[in-house]
Amino acid sequence: MDESEITYGVREVIAQVLSLSVDEVSPTAHFYDELAGDSLQKLEAIAFIEAKFNVQLTNEEAAGETVGDLVRSVVGHAS
Fold it and tell me: Which of 20, 53, 56, 63 is most deeply buried (CB count within 10 A of its CB)?
């Protein structure tokens, strides 16, 4: 799976958790400030991302503030 597929997949999961369209979830979007997510939604998104990509993110990786931060963490595990 390449980085563009991972990016779309992460955006898709976050959009689903936050009841947004994928187009509203840009890689530079801040989970809390721009997407108005809360901590429980972030945990839910992380769990779905880990299951979707078969990765285990560390606490530091899961604490990423932007969609792109999460994408980079998943890509790091995929390589």
Answer: 53
The reported pTM is: 0.94
pLDDT tens-digit map of 8-67: 999 999 999 999 999 999 999 999 999 999 999 999 999 999 999 999 999 999 999 999
Cα dihedral value 74, 41, 23, 72, nearest 10: -20
* Core vs surface per residue 31-66: b (16+ CB within 10 A) or e: beeebebeeebbebbbebbbeebebebeeebbebeb
